[in-house]
Design a protein that fits this description.
The chain is built from 2 helices and 21 strands. By secondary structure, the chain is an alpha+beta fold. Strands 2, 4, 7, 9, 10, 11, 12, 13 and 14 form a 9-stranded antiparallel sheet that branches. The longest helix has about 30 residues. The chain is elongated.
C-alpha cells in the first residue's frame, strides 16, 4: 500500500510534506501482524522573485555640501582716516563702484593744494627755460634738463596725492548686499583692517568634499543633483564648476564647487545642501535589489529559480557586483536577462530547495494553487 500525507499552511511559509512509503505487510499465520510506516519529508518554501532585464543604471555618490555666497568680501580702507559718513545702511543693495563711506581728508587735501602750486611753478619755469634754450641758446643744457625733470616730479607728486585722496572714499568692489560694517562714524579706520562686509547672493556656490578614491571619476561638468532642506525651489541638476587639485591630508578628500543662480536669494549662506554626483552611466546593466544578495565563501551569491525535473528549485549563483545606488546593485557577472532572482525568502534557502513562487500577498503563481 502507498500513503501520501499533505499538510498545508494557509499563510506565511508553507511546507508540503509528501510521504511516499512502502508498507510491506507481514502476516504470520493466524497470529496476525503489524504495519511499519516510513516517511520522507520534502519541504517547499514560498518565495518572491523578480525577473531581471537589462536597463540603464546611473551610479552616484552622495555627499553633503554647504551653501556659500559667490562673493563674501571684507573690505578695508586703503588710506587711513576718521570716518566722516557711512552712506549705506546694513542690508541695502550696493552696486560695483558705489560709495559706501567717506573718510576725513582735510590734511591730505592741504598737501595736494601745496603740491599743485609747486607743480604750477615748476611748469612755468620749465616753459621759460625751454624757450631760452631751444630758441635763443641762453643758459645751459643742464639747467634745461633740471627744469624739465623738476616739472615731471612735481606732476607725479600731484598724481600720487590725488590717488590717495580718492582712497578716502570707500567704494564697493562688487554688486551685492551691504551686510555689516565694523567701524562707526567718528572712529579711525586703519588701512588693511576690516571696515565692512559685502556679500553677493544673486549667485551662490555649493562646496562639498569628495573622498579621494573618486578622483578619477569626477571632473568639471560632471552632473550633480542638488537638494536643499526646506527649500524645494532650489532643487536642480547642474554640472560641477570646479574640482580641487589637492587632497586634504587629514580628511583624504578634495573639494568640488557648483555655481547656482539665486535670483530670489532664497538660498542662504551656511545652508546644508545634499549633492548626488553622477559617476557613470551603464547601459544594459543587470540590476537586483540589495536584499537579494548574500555573502558566501566565494564572495557574493543570489538564488535563482530554475526548473529541475519539472519542479521550481532555488539554485545559488556566485555573482560579481558592480556599482550600487540606494537599495539596488549592478551584477557585473553571474546573471543573465530573464533570470528569476529570489528577493523574499532567500534567507531560508539552500541550493536545490524546492520553492513555490508567490506574489506579495502570499498567493501562489499557479492558478489552481496545486503544488
Amino acid at each position: 500500500m502507498i500513503f501520501t500525507k499533505i499538510f498545508k499552511q494557509s499563510k506565511g511559509i508553507s511546507l508540503l510534506y509528501m510521504a511516499a512509503f512502502f508498507m510491506p505487510v507481514l502476516m504470520a499465520g493466524c497470529g496476525g501482524g503489524s504495519a511499519i510506516e516510513e516517511v520522507e519529508y520534502i519541504r517547499i518554501i514560498n518565495v518572491q522573485v523578480t525577473e531581471v532585464m537589462p536597463e540603464i543604471f546611473t551610479s552616484v555618490i552622495r555627499i553633503t555640501g554647504s551653501v556659500e555666497a559667490f562673493y563674501d568680501i571684507t573690505i578695508s580702507a586703503e588710506e587711513g582716516g576718521v570716518v566722516e559718513d557711512i552712506l549705506i545702511s546694513k542690508g541695502s543693495n550696493v552696486s560695483k563702484g558705489q560709495t559706501i563711506a567717506r573718510l576725513g581728508s582735510q590734511m591730505l587735501q592741504a598737501q595736494l593744494d601745496e603740491a599743485e602750486a609747486a607743480a604750477d611753478l615748476a611748469r612755468e619755469q620749465w616753459e621759460r627755460q625751454k624757450v631760452l634754450w631751444e630758441q635763443q641758446q641762453i643758459g645751459t643744457e643742464l639747467a634745461y634738463l633740471q627744469a624739465r625733470g623738476n616739472t615731471r616730479m612735481r606732476d607725479a607728486t600731484v598724481n600720487a596725492l590725488e590717488a590717495r585722496l580718492r582712497k578716502k572714499t570707500i567704494r564697493s568692489p562688487v554688486d551685492g548686499i551691504f551686510e555689516d560694517y565694523y567701524v562707526e562714524v567718528g572712529e579711525y579706520a586703519a588701512p588693511a583692517l576690516p571696515f565692512a562686509r559685502i556679500v553677493s547672493l544673486d549667485q551662490v556656490k555649493i562646496i562639498g568634499e569628495v573622498p579621494e578614491r573618486f578622483a578619477r571619476d569626477i571632473r568639471a561638468g560632471t552632473p550633480v543633483e542638488v537638494t536643499i532642506d526646506n527649500n524645494p525651489e532650489a532643487d536642480c541638476t547642474e554640472g560641477i564648476a570646479f574640482v580641487g587639485n589637492t587632497v586634504d591630508p587629514d580628511s583624504r578628500t578634495f573639494d568640488v564647487e557648483i555655481h547656482l543662480a539665486n535670483p530670489n536669494r532664497m538660498m542662504k549662506p551656511g545652508a546644508i545642501a545634499n549633492m548626488s554626483i553622477q559617476l557613470q552611466e551603464i547601459t544594459d546593466a543587470i540590476v537586483v535589489p540589495q536584499q537579494s544578495v548574500q555573502r558566501s565563501e566565494n564572495g557574493y551569491q543570489v538564488f535563482v529559480v530554475e526548473s529541475v525535473d519539472g519542479r521550481d528549485a532555488a539554485i545559488s549563483r556566485d555573482v560579481v557586483l558592480g556599482p550600487a545606488r540606494e537599495d539596488r546593485v549592478v551584477v557585473a557577472e553571474g546573471l543573465e536577462a530573464g533570470d528569476k532572482v529570489v528577493i523574499v525568502g532567500q534567507l531560508k534557502l539552500g541550493s536545490g530547495d524546492l520553492v513555490s513562487i508567490v506574489d506579495g500577498n502570499g498567493s501562489s503563481d499557479r492558478e489552481d494553487g496545486s503544488q
